[in-house]
Description:
mainly alpha; two-stranded parallel sheet; globular
Amino acid sequence: MELRKNAESLIEFEHPDNALYVFGPEDGSLDRAVLARCHRFVVIPARHCANLASAVYTVLYDRHAKRVRAGLEERYTTASASDFDEPDHMADAVGVTWGR
């Protein structure tokens, strides 16, 4: 993901089936050799810049949501505390009660 003049908006972007996403550093740009190998550029339309973690999450969530709407993937479900097999001593260490 790199901010460029010819970048496509993530809103209209159609994710390729076998995509390889390349994200630039938060404080700079990718090398010209890397940019030369990129086929497309995408921008996340937002009022403020995003850090690397939030940019990666946004793009991958967008891919998943669009694939769910197209019937290509199943919708993720929200896990509940009972879905985790966390040792009780770990829950005590962080002050969590699992409600068992």
